[in-house]
């Protein structure tokens, strides 16, 4: 049964993140100075981690983040990044039909993108709903975001199954063991949870290690799918606050996934919303 690692990181901070303005897909804001520093700091933290695949949302803030991370890597500086629209942020607006045929144009007509988060909270309150669960008029529902996330997750599982064929893993000392050991070094077992150990004290070799950079609301829906639908196991140290929180900018979550054709994958969360690597990364005064 092939096992692979999935490392998911939220993009770095933008000016609109700091000002609590909703971006969605319709506002393609670049990283702020702080966001670029967060990406570089995350890259230095992960510089010994060897990835085999890299995916990113095709919005500017995620593109800049993944390149900032890979630039610091010992192994992946020249890795090709695949941009996937399924990794875009939840959209809160409706695409203007006259612009649908214009490639790259993100202009949308809607009621909350580009506006303060407080306005959406007020709309949710008026509708008698909690803000994270609220869908503004014309916006993408949480179920629709979840289906996008499921589609991408199914895609990467099939990608790994297709690349590995009948192989079930790597032997200790093979490349798969190195893929795993570098992640364990970055996220120590004792602090982050417990890995399924082999009898000889090693860990099952990974056939791949996938890096994904996406967005806060999207990641929350993806994690909900992994936890609720696929019954992902969690570290004992993970609290309710971490489970319910939106991932901070350049926060890291890591999962080990065992997949088999025709069966639901078995998923183990190694860490969620990890952000200790960002200690001391603040705005310049």
Topology at a glance:
Blueprint lengths: L2 E8 L4 H4 L14 H13 L7 E4 L3 H11 L11 E2 L9 E3 L12 E3 L6 H10 L15 H23 L10 H12 L2 H4 L15 E7 L1 H14 L10 H5 L7 E7 L7 E9 L11
Helix pairs in contact: 2-3, 5-8
What assembly state would you assign to the polypeptide chains in this entry? Answer: single chain
**Can you tell me the overall shape?**
globular
Largest sheet: 6 strands, mixed
Helix content: 25-40%
Commentary on this structure:
- This protein is of the alpha/beta class and 285 residues long.
- α2 packs parallel to α3 (60-70) and α5 (142-164) crosses α8 (216-229).
- α3 links the parallel β2 (53-56) and β3 (82-83).
- It contains 9 helices and 8 strands.
What's this model, at a glance?
By secondary structure, the protein is of the alpha/beta class. Helices cover 34% and strands 15% of the residues.
Features:
single chain; 285 residues; alpha/beta; 6-stranded mixed sheet; two-stranded antiparallel sheet; 8 strands; 34% helix
